UniProtKB/TrEMBL annotation, chains A, B:
Keywords: DNA-binding, Transcription, Transcription regulation. PROSITE patterns: HTH_ARSR_2. It comes from the Bacteria. It comes from Mucilaginibacter gynuensis. This is Winged helix-turn-helix domain-containing protein. Residues 1-101 form the HTH arsR-type domain.
Amino acid sequence: MKLLEVIKSLSNQTRLDILTWLKDPFAYFPAEELADYSPSLGVCVSDIAKKAKMSIPTVSVYLKNMAVAELLVATRKDKWTYYKRNEEAIQQLAQLIKNNL
Amino acid sequence: MKLLEVIKSLSNQTRLDILTWLKDPFAYFPAEELADYSPSLGVCVSDIAKKAKMSIPTVSVYLKNMAVAELLVATRKDKWTYYKRNEEAIQQLAQLIKNNL
DNA sequence: TAGGCATTTAGGTAAATGCCTAAATTTGTT
DNA sequence: AACAAATTTAGGCATTTACCTAAATGCCTA
């Protein structure tokens, strides 16, 4: 885990919000959009962009960055790319800050 | 604790390094510079700037940012401003990431 | 294989950050 | 009061980040 890379990918309010939303999709996304939701996949790019009220390309890049930093996991299925949280990485980050920062 | 503010103040390699150095000043700063060292004060701006190999004004601003974000505590004494880590805030950050991110 | 939908990549502008030097301020000392 | 030492503030240039729109790509289905 590259601490600086991870921290940079967290240093933006929208990206922090995305992590919150993905923690409990049913609490933050309209039920219709989650019709095919499964925890193993997550939520697709355009639904997240809509929730963020930002353009799809911008959010697409945000999500990719967070996946590179390992905070999210991407899964391509059919036309869609789904993103979910990487809980292990998030706990690892908490540990790293607790013990090594 | 303002999470985004704290994360932003950590999103720079030099500022991360400063936190590491202040964790164990004797391991990172020349002994002469720590002649008057005390854990309750920390290390002064110019010693930190020297260690970082950066200009004093740049490091002065970094340190102030980190103090505003509560990661560091500043103490002015005589001509010097000393900075030390705020261990409580760092642990609080780790907890926040663990439980709320 | 043509068309359509979701996503990604490219490319551009505005704002933020990184870091510097010079000038101003603070505080202790003649 | 005047000078010196440490720090802070101001101002500037270069790089990065934040966003957007337009164009390209990937993956369906007719």
